[in-house]
Amino acid sequence: MLGGASAEPVKTKPRVVATPLVGRGKELEDLERRWQSASSGPGSFVVISAEPGAGKTTLVKSFTSSLTAAGSALVATGRCTERLGSGEAYLPFLGALTELANSARGALVRTVLRNKAPTWFVQLFPASSSDASYEQIRRELTGGSQERMKRELADALAEISRSYAVCLALEDLHWSDLATTELVAYLSRRLHELRLLVVGTLRPAELASANHPLRSILLDMQAHGAAFEMPLALLTKRDISDYLDLEFAGHRFPKEFGPWLSAKTEGNALFLVDLLRYLVERGAVVKAARWELVRPIEELSGEIPASVRALIERILGLLSEDERRWLTVAAVQGRRSTLSRSRRSRKWTSSVSRRLSKTSTVCIGWSRPEAKRSFPTDPSPSCTNSSTSSTRKPSTGP
Ligand SMILES: Nc1ncnc2c1ncn2[C@@H]1O[C@H](COP(=O)(O)OP(=O)(O)OP(=O)(O)O)[C@@H](O)[C@H]1O
Ligand SMILES: [Mg+2]
Q1: Nearest one of 154, 8, 174, 159 to 93, comparing CA atoms
Q2: Angstrom distance (rounded) from CA 274 to CA 210
Q3: What local confidence, expressed as pLDDT, does residue 347 receive?
Q4: Which residue from 8, 131, 250, 311 has the highest number of Cβ atoms inside 10 Å of its Cβ?
Q5: What is the pLDDT of residue 333?
Q6: Atom 2 of ligand 1: nearest residue by CA position
């Protein structure tokens, strides 16, 4: 828990309204280009890949909202969820189809599903498919016919896309169930019949650490020109400065504040948004006549918002013992080094960072306090010695 007896009183309520989008112009243009091409066929897949909190969902939402607003396409989103057990087969597709079936063009979608994809129809609308023929299908489904389901969905999408181009956003594919993964592979072979753009998001480190079968399927799709990876860059200093200008309009922050945020968050959007929210909660950023930073920057380091801590724990859980050791050394070096700004230290830190997956570099930033802490310290351990052993990968190196 953050906060405690000596915590500063909250001076301004944190703002939890939708945050402005910065720095994604190129990606949105790219998605728009891919949509133009997919919507006249053949279809294609775009996979937006980046570390947790980099802004994948935000980018996809911004893109799909623009398509929805334009009104000429069928747009829906389905999500994979992290499963402890086997999970529901085809979960993101079922979610997306439900959304399509409830959209303004839901009548068309329901009719096509009923005619072309009855096995999907009975799953999506059990109440409205109670006649004898659907009973028969339901019985067949018990035995499970995944081949049939894949074929039916492709047939239905082909039929729908004769009237409307379709965009499906499939979120968090690193958690996709096997049936979904196979369906993605199947659809990729029928893209020539479809006016369909699938925009997927995934965390590459999680895909790799789980040795997920989707990884090789996507590589194969890429090799055949059916899928394109869009690695999402972290926010630049310029993006962060734009964010401050938009979110804290008219602010009078010192000019070092943006670069400090950039160093502290490494440009991870979630870390940025949460750190700023945290600084507002702690009364370090306040709105008087204008938004101001009322503490010296040197006093701001050392604390980690709870959400950021949780994410770092998750990232650490994916590292091997070796990588964790490197990270610990990096953090200690950062602490000892009053020279964190010296060339030698920067060179050293970046050589360590290269040894780690990119997602871990932010931990170094968080464990390198520039000065003494001004906020009360959480008694729980810092990010480099947090306990994540349950999901930790085994050591691979010497
Ligand atoms: N380009 C951006 N400009 C401003 N804020 C952003 C941007 N991208 C993301 N954010 C903010 O960062 C937070 C995290 O973003 P988002 O949920 O999109 O990350 P993600 O990559 O989908 O993470 P996860 O892997 O956990 O799903 C959100 O609160 C969002 O408002
Ligand atoms: Mg997301």
Answers
A1: 154
A2: 28
A3: 52
A4: 311
A5: 56
A6: 21
Cα 26 to the center of its chain, rounded Å: 18
User: Kind and range of the H or E element at 186?
Assistant: helix 178-189
**CA-to-CA distance for 193 and 367, rounded, in angstroms?**
52
In 3-state terms the chain splits into helix, strand, coil percentages (rounded to 5) of 55, 10, 35
- The pLDDT value given to residue 383: 38
The token pair that represents 354 in the structure block: 């290269």
At 49 the three-state DSSP class reads strand
Predicted local confidence at residue 88, as pLDDT: 79
Q: Which residue CA neighbors atom 16 of ligand 1 most closely?
A: 55
Q: Whose CA is nearest to atom 3 of ligand 1?
A: 21
pLDDT at 10: 32
For 135, half-sphere exposure in the C-beta direction (CA atoms, 13 angstrom radius) is 3
Give the nearest ligand 1 atom to 272 CA. 12
pLDDT of residue 79: 95
How many CA atoms, within 13 angstroms, populate the side-chain half-sphere of residue 24? Answer: 24
- Measured in angstroms, how far is the CA atom of residue 130 from the centroid of ligand 1? 42
Taking the C-alpha atoms of residue 166 and residue 147, their distance in angstroms, rounded to an integer, is 22
Give yes or no for a contact between 323 and 397, defined as CB atoms under 8 angstroms apart.
Answer: no
Which residues line ligand 1 at a C-beta cut-off of 6 Å? 19-24, 50, 52-58, 203, 243, 269-270, 273
Mean pLDDT per 10-residue segment, the chain (398 residues): 31 49 96 96 96 95 93 93 74 96 94 94 77 62 74 97 96 94 95 97 90 92 94 97 96 95 92 92 91 88 73 70 68 48 50 46 43 30 36 34
CA 297–ligand 1 middle distance (angstroms): 25
- pLDDT at position 303 is 62
State the pTM of this model: 0.78
Owner of token pair 């703002």: 15
CA of 19 to the centre of ligand 1 (A): 9
Q: How much is the pLDDT for 85?
A: 52
Assess contact for 47 and 228: CB atoms under 8 A: yes
For residue 182, what are its two tokens?
């196979």
Do the beta carbons of residue 175 and residue 82 sit within 8 Å? yes
CB-CB contact of 376 with 4 (8 Å): yes
Which mutation among 16, 57, 237 tests ligand 1's pocket best, with the greatest number of atoms within 8 A of CB?
57
Taken in order of first residue, the domains within the chain and their CATH numbers are 25-231 (3.40.50.300), 239-391 (no CATH)
